[in-house]
Specification:
The chain is α+β, with helices and mostly antiparallel strands and 233 residues long. It is built from 5 helices and 12 strands. The chain is elongated and about 80 Å long.
Length: 233
């Protein structure tokens, strides 16, 4: 039995907007690994997918709804025995999962990073916590003292400098059209010499530096020259 204390205030508004209900899923990590390996997924990737439902290791094999999104809360989970790994560990993977249609087993959207609970079966079932996500404040177990997290990421630490794939996709979508037009209007000089690495404007005047705006430059600081200038050099 474990007690999970959580804080979802940072995402409460988004949850209300989409009409989803957050749940905590306790997953048998070894069973999840085996299930995912058949379709080319590791355990973490499989936990992002609705197929993870078959690996729930809580009483009744159900998700546990999390209430009170506007303030910190806690919930208790009764864990079932899990499949041991080859190293003699039993590992439980915790995920926050948002569900909008409770009757739809494929309605499964993992939120945030996972929490991993390791049970070393050959050494008195010592428990360890690792990879704590920001959506969990801490986890408590009768066999292990609580491990508390900082309330917000430390922006001075490199591990908090990461970018989500969705942010990369959104950024690309915002520049795709303009970047396509720029690439269609430029070459890159690869010849050795003073202009190596310069962008070469195919059109003269270049649409990214209109002739009637001498001080305007949308090459964003990249050195450039016209095709005619390159040919004459």
């Amino acid at each position: 039995r474990v007690t999970i204390k959580y804080d979802l205030r940072a995402v409460a508004a988004a949850l209300r907007a989409e009409g989803g209900v957050p749940h905590v899923a306790a997953l048998d990590a070894e069973k999840l690994r085996r299930k995912g390996s058949g379709i080319g997924l590791d355990a973490l990737q499989a936990s992002d997918n609705w197929i993870a439902r078959d690996c729930l290791c809580t009483k009744g094999h159900k998700l546990k709804a999390l209430g009170g999104w506007s303030f910190p809360g806690e919930t208790n989970l009764s864990l079932l025995p899990v499949t041991p790994t080859e190293q003699g560990e039993a590992i439980v993977l915790f995920r926050v999962v948002v569900v909008r249609a409770a009757q739809d087993e494929k309605d499964w959207r993992a939120l945030g990073a996972p929490l991993v609970l390791r049970m070393e079966l050959n050494s008195g079932r010592k428990l360890q916590q690792s990879d704590m996500p920001r959506h969990f404040a801490w986890v408590q177990s009768p066999r292990n003292p609580s491990v508390q997290l900082p309330r917000r990421p430390d922006e001075n630490k490199p591990e908090f400098w990461g970018v989500r794939m969705q942010q990369v996709l959104d950024f690309y979508a915002s520049i795709e059209e303009d970047m396509g037009r720029y690439c269609a209007a430029h070459l890159v000089c690869t010849e050795e010499g003073r202009y190596k690495g310069h962008h070469v404007c195919i059109h003269d005047p270049c649409p990214f530096r209109p002739i009637n705006k001498a001080k305007y430059d949308d090459h964003r600081g990249v050195p450039f020259l016209s095709l005619a200038q390159l040919a004459a050099s």
